Amino acid sequence: MRAVLLLCALTRASAITTGIFASCAGPSASSLAHCDASLAPEARVAALLGQLSTDEKIALLSPTQTPFCACHTLANDGADLGVYRWLVETNSGVSAPCLAPGRCPTMFVGPLGVAAAFNRSAWERKGDVIGRELRALANVAAGRYGRENYTLYDKATVGLTGFGPNVNLVKDPRYGRNSELAGEDPVLAGAYAAAFVKGVQRRKGGILRSAAYLKHYTAYSVRRAASRVF
């Protein structure tokens, strides 16, 4: 959890100057220990956690702002943390608009097709491409829906937490998300997910490049979606 918290709350690049997620960029940054990039990640996380109240910690980890599918957390001015979007779809590619003509996120064949290759190297390579592009889009503060949609829901930029792969199993042909799944076999789905996540979560200098969030960790129920948040 500490590594993911650092990844989500503190990662910044010099290219992030206009995006809504601009942490450790305000006038108080120089006085905040967790904004000191010369410190070890563990020290920065400890400094941040020591500054936050219990409610503030929960707010950073829980996308409680409606609409819930926006999955963003609001800024924390005292800690110089910007709005963060947790939900960036990465099941078949990073869900983000093209940065320019010909400069678009890579979109892969659906998981049913990719998993049918029975090729762990290909699955890991898919994760590697998605993890690399997720980091690149976050570095330039790319908006998930484009910069023209400037409501709070649409405005939060691409984060480093990708919602993928989807590891639910195909159990019923009527299920509307079967195209997002690797298949009906749990061994195949597990091997696919493991390789995918390994590719996404490559490390550089001991730091996660991106983080893969499995869908759906506990369950997925269309019938109960209106009254329960997973």
From TrEMBL:
Keyword Transcription regulation: no
Statement: the UniProt record of this protein carries the keyword Zinc-finger: no
Signal peptide coordinates: 1-15
Keywords, in A-Z order: Hydrolase, Signal
Top-level taxon of origin: Eukaryota
Gene3D superfamilies documented for this protein: Glycoside hydrolase, family 3, N-terminal domain
Entry-linked InterPro entries: BXL, GH, Glyco_hydro_3_N_sf
PANTHER family, per the entry: BETA-D-XYLOSIDASE 5-RELATED, SUGAR HYDROLASE-RELATED
Family designation: Belongs to the glycosyl hydrolase 3 family.
Annotated protein name in UniProt: Xylan 1,4-beta-xylosidase
